[in-house]
Design a protein that fits this description.
With about 80 residues, the chain is mainly α. The chain has one domain (about 10-75). The chain is about 75% helix and about 0% strand. Helix 1 crosses helix 2 and helix 2 crosses helix 3 (about 55-75). The longest helix has 27 residues, at about 30-55. It starts with 11 loop residues before the first helix and ends with a helix.
Length: about 80
Amino acid sequence: MATERITLDMDSTSLHVARSAADLARMPLAEWVARAVRDRGIAEAAAHTAEQDQLHPDLMKEWAEEIEQRMFEDGGE
């Protein structure tokens, strides 16, 4: 995966926690931070999606039905 260098300012307590967690996981700090950010982003996106599904329960059903209809109309191509 391509990487990009960034500068990150962090309070000393958070940095200590991150370094300790990276050491426990036996991985470089940069890799641990990248994984933590990715995991958090995925979790927040999933929570947002679940919230939207509760607010608009028929949207996904309609979408799934539309996709199914398209598959059978054009032979799935």
